[in-house]
Amino acid sequence: MTVRAFICGCKGLVLQPEEVAFLRAYDPWGLILFKRNVDTPAQVQALVAQFRAVVGRADAPVLIDQEGGRVQRLGPPHWLAYPSAAQLAGTDPEANIDRVRQATRLIAHDLQLLGITVDCLPVLDVPAPGGHNVIGDRAYASNAVQVARLGLAAAQALLAGGVLPVIKHIPGHGRADADTHLSLPIVRTPRRQLEAVDFAAFVPCRHLPLAMTAHVVYADIDPDHPATTSRIVIEEIIRGYIGFEGLLMSDDLSMQALQGSLGERAVAAFAAGIDMALHCNGHLDEAEQVATHSPPLQGVAAARAAAALAQIHMPQAFDPVDAAARLSVALAAKP
Fold it and tell me: Is the pLDDT of residue 304 over 90?
């Protein structure tokens, strides 16, 4: 069976018969998990194993959004409640890096034990005055240099724990004046300023294996299309100015920022130059539209996907109890 270039979600704690049939028919590259898919560690491990058995690939990626703060799919009582990116940052730059590394390495440890191999982290968006709080405290800082430094530290911590990072939301969501889950933001900031701030935060992380697009219009670059469906933004900014060469996936195609049917959204995103479509809500009628309009994973996209998976290694030695204690002390002492 040929793997298709899309990632899907599922409804609940186990795969239902109709979901198994769908996965066997369309063979998505990966599965993304949400809170609706999480109960206990044993249950998550079983769901991950079930997905991989159905598609017949032991290395099939399983993704999750485990940032900390408002966005974490795993939480108490079985997993720590991690601080948000903003809560990790203080006035001491080196202490900030240490806190980010400790927290993110702990997250990687949690995920690796479950068989989850990809975390949609770090957030490299630089928040700006007037921007919607959908990013807010998910950002590490309010300037591009600190965002890039801390985001890179987070990515390195995930890789050290055997988990792939996904930089998001490329080329920058911090100025968006709307929540893309609900509507389409239009950023009218001049390109030169975007390059100096928003896009600049991604440049030091351009070598990382995976990135997720922003459903945001940058009017000074392409006034007609959000980045996800803009060949201009993908070629000139993401692949050009930023220089990202890894696997480029869309943000969730079911978000209301995008127009048209789910199939039309997928077609537009692939035509613009993404490598992988993402559909999250687990609704099979929508997922089938995305699946049927997603191409086989081949050529450059397949090479990028293989290169990403090749970066998954056995975790480095790590003591989670000691790391959790150190993080607690560091947060309490944060200036």
Answer: yes
